[in-house]
Design a protein that fits this description.
247 residues; Arc Repressor Mutant, subunit A; Beta-Lactamase; two-stranded antiparallel sheet; 10 helices; 7 strands; globular
């Protein structure tokens, strides 16, 4: 006889409803569909929020599947996102002549789902590397995905400085992050390590949420800041292609 835990079943059922819903859901809507009371729905949603399996929109108060679900998918060999994005990742790496990375954020941590390594003297391997959010282009995009309260909380903390180029002024970083929120693109020029520079573009869901990041990292010795910025349209196009593939 199969024994099952009702609370786990309900949490997974809620996650399944959110995944299949064409639009974000409210607590009353979830409670009605699942035929449970609102207090139970709140307990379930708070548990899923704790593991970032769901996300709450700060303005509407509605819920969608969160980035933690992608983190779970990243541990499998059949990750749909990575598999579909792989050809684009290979092409953009060849186009830039540099290492390219597909990343997601889960529980405030940036995770490399896939990477194409380029044979350069200044070898880059971001997998497993902890890059402070203010020091990298992907980190800046992650900050751009936060709501205003969360962003200000981060900016009020001590910002790490790894090189003379690292942005540690909250006002300057805020300006870059807000620009990235609009454009979906962020840059890092010698801010993490002086040998590197990078450009990242957000991969967005249909509702505009950032669900992943496409990053290219190049040697700063052969790439000026102007040259880095000039590659923006190519990276945006590739990020949009990945978004269409995984939509």
């Amino acid at each position: 006889m199969v024994q099952r835990i009702q609370s786990v079943e309900r949490a997974l059922a809620m996650l399944d409803i959110l995944a299949k819903s064409p639009r974000p859901q409210t607590i009353p809507e979830l409670a009605k569909v699942m035929d449970i009371n609102r207090a139970t729905a709140w307990r379930l949603i708070n548990t899923l929020l704790e593991f970032e399996l769901v996300e709450k929109d700060g303005e509407s108060g509605r819920f969608t599947v969160g980035s933690g679900a992608f983190k779970l998918a990243a541990s499998t060999h059949t990750n749909t996102m990575s598999r579909k994005a792989r050809p684009v990742l290979e092409r953009i790496s060849s186009l830039f002549g540099a290492s390219a990375f597909l990343e997601i954020a889960a529980r405030g941590e940036l995770i490399v789902l896939d990477q194409i390594r380029w044979d350069l003297p200044e070898e880059v391997d971001l997998a497993g590397m902890q890059v402070p959010l203010n020091c990298g282009s992907v980190g800046k995009l992650y900050l751009a995905s936060l709501n205003d309260v969360e962003l200000e909380k981060y900016l009020s903390s001590k910002l790490e400085s790894l090189t003379p180029y690292t942005i540690t002024d909250p006002s300057e970083l805020r300006m870059e992050v807000l620009q990235a929120r609009i454009s979906g693109v962020a840059y890092n020029y010698k801010e993490h390590q002086e040998e590197w520079c990078g450009i990242s573009a957000s991969i967005r869901a249909r509702d505009g949420r950032f669900i992943a990041y496409l990053n290219v990292t190049l040697p700063s010795a052969s790439t000026s800041r102007e040259q880095l910025i000039a590659r923006t349209p190519e990276l945006i196009s590739a990020a949009q292609e990945i978004a269409a593939l995984i939509a």
